[in-house]
Amino acid sequence: MRSMCAVLSCLALSSIIQGATMSSSEPPREGANQEEGNRLRLESSPYLLQHAFNPVDWWPWSPEALEEARRRDVPIFLSIGYSTCYWCHVMERESFEDPSIAAILNRDFLPIKVDREQRPDVDDIYMTACQVFTRMTEGRASGGWPLNAFLDPDTLAPFVVGTYSPPEPMPGRPSFTELLGTISRAWRDQREEVEAQGARIAEVVRGELASPTGRKDLSASLDDAVVTALLRYHDASEGGFGGAPKFPQPVYLEVLMDAAADRPEAVEAVRHTLDRMAVGGIHDQVAGGFHRYAVDGTWTVPHFEKMLYDNGQLASLYARSVAGSGDAYHARVLRDLADYVLREMTEDDGAFRSAQDAEVDAREGATHVWRPEEITEALAGADLAGESAFALEVYGLDRGPNFRDPHHPDDPPSNVLRLSDRPERLAAAVGIEPEEFERRLMMIDRALLEARDRRPQPGLDDKVLASWNGLMIGGLAEAGAALKEPAYVEASSRAADGVLARLGGVDDLRRNARGDVLGGPAYLDDHALLAHGLIALHRVSGEAERLEQAEALVAAARRHFRDPESGIWFDTRPDQADLLVRASNLNDGAMPSGAGTMMLVLAELAELTGNVAYLEDLEAFLAASSVSIATNPVGPIRSVMALRRLARLDPERAGRLETLGSTSGPGEGDGEADPDDDGGVLAAIVPDPDRPGGHLLLMRAADGWHVNAHDPGDAEAAEGLVGITLEAVSGGTVEVDWPIGEPWKEGVLVHEGELSIPITIRRESPDATVVLVFGWQACNDRVCLMPRQAEFAVAPEDAP
What we know:
The protein is 43% helix and 13% strand. The chain is an alpha+beta fold. Helix 14 packs across helix 15 and helix 20 packs antiparallel against helix 21 (544-561). The longest helix has 20 residues, at 434-453. It is globular. Mean pLDDT is 89; it is low at 1-30 and 664-676.
């Protein structure tokens, strides 16, 4: 382990490098002619076009770019982002527009730009690599965009990966120029070490993204375990999950809604979360729709970009709330969201655009924030001067500013508009009838939107993405049904027609298009999410055509992505030679996974058509993915939802999945270890009765197995082994008093049997739930298994 870290530390992004500006005696290469632009000028992606006139000689990700890097024998500098990414804009202004930095990139590297929304497969691989690299070098996994990776051109293995790099050195972080110089020298002078480091990282990435073999029992109670875990993680004060930054996490809310019949507390958690998001600044109070996430734990200050995929999922959630409860406030939020999408995010053919930017004129949120005098002026201009005091009170401006741009501290402070509570409660507090409160607030909002529309507007990413459109097609159809508004259902149907016509149809679906320019072939998530949206539209409208289109999309996906031997549906096609690994990623994040959504689609098609072939495919897919699902069911939530639906549709098939492990054990009884097993490691976090406020990490390895100590030691045999770790991912921090391991073969330090480790959890607030991730690698006399992780949510009531 130490020797591995020695190589990592010489290249790690966290190291400070002195005097590393130029790394070779070769003169800088000519960059792009800034008047003519670089190769990106021929692309259609708004993100790539933003960089088309940089002095950096950018290439798009392509066979030609990879071959050129190999011909020149230089590392690839891969930079991944998206058009509405604030920090991508910052790094472009600071570094990629700097001719001196461009000269280094052009001379010592082959610079490649990727739009993550066009190439989610490339992004997924190198984001995983970033998490692996930061876990190795900094002790905890992290990532984000811009995502910057340095690749071996021959293998595409990443040997250094990180995110934003500053133009000048910062405490604990080198400047971007220093980083480039260090990596270039290492490539020249330490090639074998660099290549070995890349190979190690690539091996871990493959292990994390490749679909595991083997089988594990899929218990019928998995969905209940997921709901219990999420309820422990739920923020009872502000709704949502965890602390700052706070994301809507629609898939979490979706599975809680599915459990409503059996778990009344799940209903309350969803209702409370939808309420708190709706009154917060993450909800655009004036124009409708939701921003991507909040930078705080109270939903007040958003990261201001607005993404179609968030709003599509939230439309479905608010529609389900309205349909189930008749909540009038949720109905208004839903109507405003739908109107916003139709007004600002819809193409002439009905298809939906992708996103709106976070910044205007290099000011984050400049279009959206207000000062009191601006509110007063806007209302006076609309003959509503008498409503100024009411508006300032309702939206909180009378209590002082809540926003200051950290990148422009000299700008005056301002406010993100938010409510402190649901409108009917605010109305009661000021002695106004709810209907009158609502009428006045709607007048104010219209006037403020008219004034805001006269401001400079955020950039618009107008490419049409199949998967994201699927989410909004479904969300808008469900909104129309819940609100009894045929116009929304008609808009959903028009979008379906526009998307299929624009993107090549069900038999030759493309990932994206901008104008008349088509992108590459669609991925699994495009087929799955678009089919899911079409099924939702079919359920609302009764159009048989939509069900037929969904079936055709699934049939095409089956040809392109399903492995007939294992039953797995992969994210990409088998003929993509530019990828480290062919992934089948079940984990749902801000976007639902393609694999998990396809499982749900198979269940829905079986229910709607009566065709048992869909259930056969679903059973095989769940069985082939059982190790991933059973090991961490909170990750692949839509897969767990599909398992629940299979149990309802065909209990016999679901029953067979409950005994997978016992009927197909490791090596069929030959004594060999299943490489996808966890070594029989059990772990728990419990209060420490001997230390007030303290906790214990309890762990036990099965007989014949051990886990590597946190520091496996200096022995040569310890190189490449992964020690036990415990990280806080939200809600606070954790301190661990790691024990020294016992010497094992060749001096490796390990732990066998039972272990009790004192830990100290510090919450960011008294009522915060702290989410911890425990990592381990189990080994025996013959084999070391892939590293594993388990997640624990430690609620305040778990304190001693």
